[in-house]
Write a structure and sequence with these properties.
Blueprint lengths: L2 E2 L2 H4 L8 E13 L4 E7 L7 E6 L17 E10 L7 E12 L15 H5 L9 H23 L3 E2 L5 E2 L11 E2 L26 E3 L4 H11 L1 E9 L12 E10 L3 H22 L1 H8 L5 H10 L3 E4 H10 L16 H11 L4 E7 L15 E9 L3 E8 L4 H10 L8 H8 L5 E7 H9 L20
Parallel strand pairs: 1-2, 4-6, 7-11, 13-14
Antiparallel strand pairs: 2-3, 2-5, 3-4, 5-6, 8-10, 9-10, 11-12, 12-17, 14-15, 15-16, 16-17
Helix pairs in contact: 3-5, 3-6, 5-7
Length: 464
Amino acid sequence: MTIKITVAEARGIEFIDRDVRLSGWVRTRRDSKGGFSFVEINDGTSLGNIQVIVPQSLPNYETIIKTITPGSSVLIEGIVKKSPAQGQSTEIEATLIELIGESDAATYPLQKKGHSLEFLRSIAHLRVRTNTFGAVARIRNTVSYSIHRFFQENGFIYVHTPIITASDCEGAGQMFRVTVIDADNPPRNNSGKVDYSQDFFGKSSYLTVSGQLNVETYCAGLSKVYTFGPTFRAENSNTSRHAAEFWMIEPEIAFCELSENMAWAEKFLKRLISDVLTERREDIEFFNRTDTTLIETLNNVVSSDFVRLSYTDAVAILEKCGKKFDFKVGWGIDLQSEHERYLTEEHFKSPVILYDYPRTIKPFYMRLNEDGKTVRAMDLLVPRVGEIIGGSEREYRLDLLGERMKEQKLDMEAYRWYADLRRYGSVPHSGFGLGLERALMFITGIGNIRDVIPFPRTTGNCDY
């Protein structure tokens, strides 16, 4: 009986001497003078291809098989055999090959040569067929699944928070407006401004920058929750670390203070990395070929006890270290990635969780400390990247929440629903956020966020 299998399965030894059927896209075809051809195919299930040996005795050998080009899709039937060649365990002796979809060799952009990541961004609809982007996609899938497994195994409930919102979680105002108003002929109020009360929602609305405030409402009734979805920032930034659309994981935990929140963040990050190292070993080893300390760095994160260090102590270390930084260090500044990397790569040589940041550089919802100068914020720093997780204990005291909102000039009435959580059964609670793409950059060693998301949305780029 012929069994339908994947390329990943065909590369294993369990199907040796079995009749199989598989499909995929041709990577290469090489014709031998000995009366047969070698065709390598990949279906995306593994980094490596499977080599198919095609004898000239097949009826369509001259008419079809010898015309197959890279990018074509094919169906293959044959027998899995142990391979005598180095670098592969198995190969397939074909008994049938059908050409499913042709590929024009003259115009197919993925030729058998190296392509720059910049070039591949221009063909995002095809780049997943390359080794690099196939590996990124599989790792992204594994990390996403690991996120859900971690929280489900630890008693968290998955909450779908809205993508369209009227609230600015970060208070930065860098939000994409959602509107059905005709830009060429908008309704205007008495002051001549666009009247958004006549818009679809009856008020100004935006794409969310974070699901945190919404997921806090469910935390106040379900205790342990998380949200995982797309978020948006209208930052006119053209750096390798910023995108206008990205995915965020945001757990929220009731009856949880900052120290416990830090423990959750450490446990969570270690789980994601461990799962990738175990389940996507071939893909990680592929990235380690060019970034030769990648696996060592990831293993170090998994095995390390993360350092806990106050922001104040971190600034003191940076001021006394004697290293010249591009950005000046001083109490009250927001630390830059060069400062964070010094702490993790040179001073402690391990991940670091900084806590108790100045109130002036953190959002309104973070709990104020007794000193009145700092809030119970935390940032988890790792080598190479710096901050990878940010979180805090939330301000659950209504009077101090109001004080912080006034301090940051927020409309109290617009956040009345959020303040209600402090009016009715308020409890200490904490949470954090992990940007999926930032985590993938760290795990793969890829230096640009545009290369760890299928269709990057950046300034001036909204193709596909």
